[in-house]
């Protein structure tokens, strides 16, 4: 039996794989014996699904202009403040480490 057919048979939704705990994975592997599902294929399916759909925390970089001391929420805000094209502003900030300081912050925790 394939993994997809196995999940249909036990009424298991793929999106549940993002929130499962170790004991729930053990339960799936124990059921795999009963339904004659290849455990290696099941493990690959679980890992592939989690790698593809897991929500990774986004890291933002706060820009500090060392000459003026002004802080900007991110590079986009800096470029908008000076009316620069985003690509030009990005290159300006990244190529001048003596003029700008980038501080990594968690998204939502500014």
Automatic annotation (TrEMBL):
Protein's recorded name: Uncharacterized protein
């Amino acid at each position: 039996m394939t993994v997809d057919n196995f999940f249909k048979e036990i009424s298991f939704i793929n999106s549940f794989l993002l929130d499962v705990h170790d004991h729930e994975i053990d339960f799936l592997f124990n059921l795999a014996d009963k339904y004659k599902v290849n455990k290696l294929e099941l493990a690959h399916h679980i890992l592939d699904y989690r790698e593809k759909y897991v929500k990774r925390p986004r890291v933002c970089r706060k820009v500090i202009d060392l000459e003026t001391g002004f802080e900007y929420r991110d590079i986009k805000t800096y470029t908008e403040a000076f009316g620069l094209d985003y690509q030009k502003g990005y290159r300006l900030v990244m190529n001048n480490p003596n003029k700008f300081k980038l501080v990594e912050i968690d998204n939502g925790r500014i």
